[in-house]
Model the fold of this input.
Amino acid sequence: MSGAVPFANAQHPSIGNVPLAEIPRRSILCPTGPYDALVYGQGPAAFIFAIQMVRHRKTVLLVPSLIKSSQKPWGETLAPRGEFLLGRLGLVNECLAGQHSTQTVLSCWQNSDPERTDLAFDPHGRMWHVNRSAFDNALQAHAIKSGVDILDRRSHCVTSVSRRTGCWEVRLASPDCERDVKIGYVVDATGRSSCVARRMGSKRILRDHLVAVSCTSEEAGEIVPLLIEPVSKGWWYSLGLPQGKLLVALMTDPKLVKVSAEMRKSLWDETLDDAPHTRKRIGARENALSVVGAESARLDSMSGEGWLAIGDAAMSFDPLSSHGLCNAIEQAIDAAEVLSAHGHEAALVEFEAKRKDMFEKYRAQRLDFYQSVRRFSGYAFWQNRILH
Done:
């Protein structure tokens, strides 16, 4: 690909949820480069990729979003393997300080009464209920301490990105200066928007148009474990958060989530009446409802000449899988390994092939999981899930 790339001036949808004013930064009046990689994003995939690149003695410029995003309800748990991955990186103490660990999951998936799963026998240990703001802040602070340059989007602007003679030329402008910076690779870690990959010509292949209607409310007493409770029009997800709140989400079909707040509240109340265990947790302590995508999807191309996508930008999963954060961490580690090694162009082909194979295995597991809910098999939501 050559010539200017049209994503340069876009205000990219946010990844993560940390207000820019609260983010500590290295002081960068005008980056000079060159950089081995430029990564768009400000979530776990972006930070861990940048940290690992620096550990491989590479230089990285991280370009955060200008827009604050809403919290991802399914991003509030870290599966047991996540702690193992953070341990490999030496980041457990920083990232999981003040977070809540549990060895218990409650599920009504097979029966109307909750069945308890004990994670004590999981080889990787515990599940974590994660305060994502604290988690992301810890990763960002470590990235800065490691030597990652983070562009201050309040004073700097990316005005153009061009592919020329085997590298990228990125024009950065501020009130004080304007210059071109050479970049080896552009990395898309912009979450489900995949905004960089889309502008490279890649398309997201949707496998399930699931959405989450969610709210948080004050929780009395101890932090409750994750509870999954199916109903005819979807399934409920609830858990206690380390900051003393209860997060509750209804996963359902987009067509059931109407435009008006009144219709969303009607659906919420109707399905909550069919979920007695979730209803008992919420009581009357509901806050405003929000709607976000929770689709299963992947890019048709996760890499190309001089670029690649990682984390949710490359592929996103049903919240049931608990793959989200672990996938972001693992892909970031592997991508940094590939781009810091010699002959990485060929290695990228293998990198992408492994991710696509993993996604197909996930699809088969997800299909089996939805098919196992027999008591709602005649309803449209459940029939839709077993067709994809």
